[in-house]
Amino acid sequence: MLSAIALMALLALALGAVLGYASVKFRVESDPLIDKIDAILPQTQCGQCGHPGCRPYARAIADGGEDINRCPPGGEDGIRKLAELLGVDYKPFDEGAAQPKPKAVAIIDEETCIGCTLCLQACPVDAILGAAKQMHTVIEAECTGCELCVAPCPVDCISMQPVDATLKTWKWGYPVIPIKENAA
């Protein structure tokens, strides 16, 4: 009969073989077209396009089942970049659909916040800090302005404040290259 140590060693080897096989068997390859489309999208994960995030929307565009003009945070520039990538005509936003808005960030009125955590659960990018029955706050640098935290708040302590355009915030965080003026 096998000793307990030998039996455990055999089980560990068998489990390792199964897990090793499973990790190879179920590896998912990335689609380069989906990756390129996803890179153009603003990564707000807001769902305004009708999909639960930017990657599912990118997949739907790549599959040909979705128009390129459904992302308000991406704006007109995003549509133009998607059209260029896919070799299709530019298509403006539908009048009845969500429209682009100026960049905004969520602000929590800390005196009114009751610490219910509903905003934490709603935030798709984990930009809100807080704990149950404790005051919450927004990490402004992480907030995408998706507004998903506003509706679930039972005390209406969350508001969206426009972000002033600066060199750092002018467009989705792309770096600005300063232009030197010629001294005449």
TrEMBL record:
Give the protein's function.
Answer: Part of a membrane-bound complex that couples electron transfer with translocation of ions across the membrane.
Name the segments for region: Hydrophobic.
Answer: 1-23
Q: Might you give the EC number(s) for this enzyme?
A: 7.-.-.-
Family assignment? Belongs to the 4Fe4S bacterial-type ferredoxin family. RnfB subfamily.
Cell compartment(s), UniProt = Cell inner membrane
What this protein is called in its record is Ion-translocating oxidoreductase complex subunit B
Task: Identify the domain of life.
Answer: Bacteria
Q: How is the cofactor bound?
A: Binds 3 [4Fe-4S] clusters.
* Family annotation (PANTHER family): ION-TRANSLOCATING OXIDOREDUCTASE COMPLEX SUBUNIT B (PTHR42859:SF3), OXIDOREDUCTASE (PTHR42859)
Cite the Gene3D superfamilies for this sequence: 3.30.70.20, Electron transport complex subunit B, putative Fe-S cluster
Q: What keywords are assigned to this protein?
A: 4Fe-4S, Cell inner membrane, Cell membrane, Electron transport, Iron, Iron-sulfur, Membrane, Metal-binding, Repeat, Translocase, Transport
Domain 4Fe-4S ferredoxin-type span(s) in chain numbering? 104-133, 134-163
Residues binding [4Fe-4S] cluster 2 are 113, 116, 119, 153
What cofactors does this protein use?
[4Fe-4S] cluster
Read off the NCBIfam families from this record.
PRK05113.1, rnfB
Binding of [4Fe-4S] cluster 1 occurs at 46, 49, 54, 71
> Start and end of every 4Fe-4S domain?
29-88
Quaternary structure?
A: The complex is composed of six subunits: RnfA, RnfB, RnfC, RnfD, RnfE and RnfG.
Report if keyword Transport is assigned. Answer: yes
PROSITE patterns the record matches: 4FE4S, 4FE4S_FER_1, 4FE4S_FER_2
Question: Does the keyword field hold Chaperone?
Answer: no
Residues where [4Fe-4S] cluster 3 binds = 123, 143, 146, 149
